[in-house]
Specification:
Distance between the termini: 71 Å
Order of helices and strands: HHHHHHHHH
Largest sheet: none
Number of helices: 9
Shape: elongated
Structural class: mainly alpha
Number of strands: 0
Radius of gyration: 19 Å
Length: 184
């Protein structure tokens, strides 16, 4: 008897991640993932209720890898600077994935924003000076910093902005949080 090959969740997610990097979120369908893997769509639907669940699981899995490989890197004593520089370094190191997540249009912006905020909140609240900052203030700072970091990341991978890590750290360490969550 020929043994059937078993396709587990991690195999399907790996194939979906490859498609995400190569072609973006819109290319991730049951048929395209199955085709990429050389299988039918049945194993996909045995592991995931639907494609929405697959895509959300993929997003969380990819983000966990980015947190581990990029976003948790400590470059300086400033959490704000680490956040910004790490986002830019991720964009430079994995530009196709960065573009698929942060540049190309898709319907997972809210989820991506929430994952980023959760990571930011964990990191920034490890600094004593941010422990008494309100949730609203953190959200405002995160959004502003995320916009600046992603703008600089996009300009960096396009070749328009060419700053050293030290210069980037200087930019992000100059950002301060006032009690009303504005920037000075």
């Amino acid at each position: 008897m020929v043994r059937k090959k078993v396709y587990k969740k991690q195999h399907i997610l790996a194939a979906a991640e490859d498609l995400l990097i190569e072609k973006g979120f819109s290319a991730i369908t049951a048929r395209s993932v199955a085709e990429y893997m050389g299988i039918s769509t049945q194993p996909i639907y045995l592991e995931f209720k639907n494609m929405e669940e697959l895509k959300l699981t993929l997003l969380k899995t990819v983000y966990e890898g980015l947190e581990r490989d990029f976003f948790s890197t400590v470059r300086t004593s400033s959490s704000l600077a680490n956040f910004g520089v790490n986002q830019i370094e991720f964009a430079k190191a994995k530009s196709k994935l960065y573009i698929a997540l942060f540049v190309e249009q898709h319907s997972y912006g809210k989820e991506l924003h929430q994952l980023s905020f959760n990571s930011f909140k964990k990191t920034i609240q490890s600094e004593v000076k941010y422990t008494n900052v309100s949730q609203e203030q953190l959200e405002n700072v995160h959004l502003k910093l995320w916009i600046v970091a992603n703008g600089m990341a996009t300009l960096s991978i396009s070749g328009i902005l060419n700053k050293t890590e030290e210069q980037l750290i200087d930019v992000f360490t100059s950002i301060k949080l006032k009690s009303d969550a504005t920037w000075i």
